[in-house]
Description:
Elements: E1 16-18, E2 47-48, H1 60-64, E3 78-79, E4 104-105, E5 111-112, H2 114-118, E6 120-123, H3 126-136, E7 140-146, H4 151-166, E8 170-176, H5 181-189, E9 194-195, E10 197-202, E11 205-211, H6 215-226, E12 233-235, H7 238-247, E13 254-260, H8 265-280, E14 284-290, H9 295-303, E15 308-309, E16 311-316, E17 319-325, H10 329-339, E18 343-345
Parallel strand pairs: 1-18, 6-8, 7-8, 12-14, 13-14
Antiparallel strand pairs: 2-15, 3-9, 4-5, 7-10, 10-11, 13-16, 16-17
Amino acid sequence: MSLxxxxxxPNDSSLDFNTSSYLLFNPIISSSPTTTAAVPTPPATMAAFxxxxxxxxxxxxxxxxxxxxxxxxNPKIQSFFPTKSKTHTPPLFVTKASAGAATKTDDNGAAKxxxxxxxxxxxxxxxEFEAALRDAKQKLVVVEFAARNSKQSSEIYPFxxxxxxTCNEVVFLLVLGDESDEMTEFFKxxxxxxxxxxxxYKGMEKIHEExxxxxxxxxxxxxxxxxxxxxxxxxxxREDVEKLIADHKEDNKLIVLDVGLKHCGPCxxxxxxxxxxxxxxxxxxxxxxxxxxxxxxxxxLKDMDVVEVPTFLFIRDGExxxxxxxxxxxxxxxxxxxxxxxxxxx
Length: 346
C-alpha cells in the first residue's frame, strides 16, 4: 500500500454533471480548484500553518486563528465588568420556566416544562460546575458564560437550547456571572471579561474557547468538537488510516480524508458540510484527522506534504489520487464528484 501523492486523471466517462443542480448545498460559484497533488496558492479561507511541523504545537492557535467567518448574527461583545448603573434595569436573561407552565407533552402525555425541554443545566456554584465536568467524562461540554442583563447573552441562548435538544452526546451548561458573588469570582478566575463567552471541555480539560460568536459558529464548533457518533470516521494515528484503507480495498470506495487542526477556524467552518455529505453519499467514505492531536498525526501530515488546512485527501485503492485545499462547500462537492468519475462543469 502506498500513500504517496500522485497525479491522476479522473474518469470522465460518465455523463456531464452540473454541480449547480446538485441540491445538497448552495450552487458552486467559485472557480475550479486545484485537483492534483500540487499544493495550490492559499485562498483567504485557508488556515496556513507553513513550517508547523518544525514548530512546537503550542503555536497552533495563533497560526490558524483567522477572521474569515461571516454570520447572520454578529453583535458587539459586552464587557462583563461594566461601570454599574445606579438605575435598576430588569434582567433580560430568564432561564427558569414559569411554575406549572407546560410547553410540550412526552409520549405518555405528561407535560414537560420549558426547563425540562431545553436540557441546558444552569450552574449556580463552582462545586456544581466541577461536578458537571466530572460527570460528563469524555463527552463534549459546552459552557456559556453569560450575564443576566446582557442582550447578546439572551439572544444566543435560544440557539444553544436548540442544540441541546438535538445533540444528545453533548452536555450544555449555563453560568451567570452576575448571579452571585461566588460566580463573579469564578468569572475572574476563568478570565471571563466579556460575554457571551463559550468554553469547550473534554475529560475536564478545556480544549477550545470562543467569544462573541453567532449561531452558525456555535453550531459548527459543537459539531466539530463533539462529533463522535456520525458517519465520519475519526482517525487518531497512521495505523487508523491504513486500517481504513484496507477495509475499503475490495469495495473500491473513494475515501475522503479531512485533515485539519483542533483550533482551525476554516476547518470548523467546512465540517458541517462534511457531515451532511457523509449522510448523503453512500458510495463515499468520509474520515477526519486532527494533525495536532499527537505526534503520529503530525508525522502523517508531514509525510503527506500537507502544509495548509483544511486539506482533503482523496484515496482509492491505497493511493492518493488527488487533494483539495480549502473550505468552500461547492468546491469540495465538485471535487468529490470529480473523483467519483463525474465530469463537473461550472
